[in-house]
Design goal:
By secondary structure, the protein is an all-alpha fold. It is built from ten helices and no strands. The termini are far apart.
């Protein structure tokens, strides 16, 4: 994830990691810059060399995660092949991200509504990518008819909900069995249910 490796010779990666963990655990509003500094092992002034303030830091962390995830989704959506294969790839990306970066994943899911409107128009939206992918599946006769936006919301919600549930239960091993989730998602979307 690029936001964890940006400027590796500086304190920025430690600050971002500490802030993300605290934001995921306590929420952005309940986290102070002093707590971020203490958790990162830096002075509070060091944070201001990289960020103007907590809101900018929180938004930038979200934007970097969102951008990374959207690029992963776009690559899957643009691959050739049946939609069922793409759904499996999407589940793999989602579950691997939740397993590898559980705090960041929680932060991303819990703050999407807060930051989504403030993202630049040049940043593709996850929902739009899913809708486009599902509409192609509908046109190919793979996906059930109906509102592609609602189907995209159902797919996104199912994956995010399963991953959040596993993280909160501290059962990250559950996220290693991607096939049952992929099959369930496919059954939800498939024209031939």
């Amino acid at each position: 994830m690029e936001f964890l490796t940006q400027k590796p010779a500086t304190k920025r990666p430690a600050i971002v990691a500490a802030a993300t963990a605290l934001f995921a655990r306590k929420g952005i509003d309940a986290t102070s810059m002093r707590e971020v500094a203490e958790s990162a092992g830096v002075r509070e002034a060091a944070i201001y060399r990289h960020f103007r303030g907590k809101d900018e830091m929180a938004r930038e962390i979200f934007e970097n995660w969102y951008g990374w995830y959207t690029r992963q989704l776009r690559e899957v959506a643009e691959e050739e092949g049946p939609l069922q294969k793409k759904i499996r790839a999407l589940v793999r990306i989602e579950f691997e991200a939740a397993r590898t970066y559980p705090e960041e994943f929680l932060y991303f899911c819990e703050n999407e509504a807060r930051f989504l409107r403030s993202l630049g128009r040049d940043i593709p939206r996850i929902r739009q990518e899913l809708i486009r992918m599902l509409r192609k599946g509908q046109a190919a006769g793979e996906v059930r008819s109906g509102d592609a936006g609602l189907l995209a919301d159902m797919l996104s919600g199912a994956l995010c909900g399963a991953a959040i549930s596993a993280i909160m239960r501290k059962d990250l091993q559950m996220l290693e069995s991607e096939e049952p989730a992929a099959e369930s998602c496919w059954q939800m979307l498939s024209r031939n249910r």
